Amino acid sequence: MNVFRPFSLNIRGKLHTFDRPLVMGIVNVTPDSFFADSRTYDDNAIKARVRKMIDEGADIIDIGAYSSRPGADEVSVEEETMRIAKGMTAIRQIAPDAIISVDTFRADVARVAVESYGADIINDISGGDLDDNMWSTAAQLHVPYILMHMRGTPATMQSMTDYKNVTADVVNDLSAKLRKLRLAGVADVIIDPGFGFSKTIEQNFDLMRNLDIIAETLDAPLLVGISRKSMITKSLNISSADALAGTIALNTIALMRGASIIRVHDVAEAVAALRMYQLSNK
Length: 282
What we know:
By secondary structure, this protein is an alpha/beta fold. The chain has a single domain, classed as TIM Barrel (Alpha-Beta Barrel). Helices cover 43% and strands 16% of the residues. An eight-stranded parallel sheet has the order 8-7-6-5-4-3-10-9. A two-stranded antiparallel sheet has the order 1-2. Helix 2 packs parallel to helix 3, helix 3 packs parallel to helix 4 and helix 9 runs parallel beside helix 10. It is globular and about 40 Å long. The termini are close together. The relative contact order is 0.14. The model has no long low-confidence stretch (mean pLDDT 92).
């Protein structure tokens, strides 16, 4: 089953059309992200990780400076901005043309990342709920915006998993926000169902089974981020360090059900899975 649909994004004033799914590589400029191997905090480590990801075939680099795992330490706006500036500077020194998304729910951090350091996409885990200025900022900056579904905050989200029907409720919430974003002037919106965010393990798998419905209903590019997450580790009773095989399996299923972008820690393996998917759908 090949349900991928080509999509376009305006990157730095130029329209890019993508005729295959993309691989987004994760770079965490944090000391406490849930997967230890994704943490890069000094310039050399950042450059080495990004260079490796690009060599392995990453289409987008996603840089985050605030861990969203439950129980993570609070990070001030100033600290997050400093971390993003450090990471973006290192990345641009070795990859001036790379497409970079900034993973933040704060409008001020997003603005600095785009205006001062050349970020191309805003990736907002809160879907605009944690900063009232985020949507207007994305519109003013004329950058694509990743709209993710989450309830509450990273600290409270796992107490907010009461849904009548998780797929229907997520679609309804994202659909309403998508209309408001477009009215606010955000032209390019990518949707993310928010695997692991205010969802139980069972609800995560319900969303995975219905990805094609989500993509078709919302009529927007679909990002799937399940890399080494608890829906894998808890289901298999393993650690995140041992979750690569489960990640590859779920990413392959996501591609078969319409994912436009897969967000991963392990780029080479994701690119291989994508290639197998493409060859199987010629």
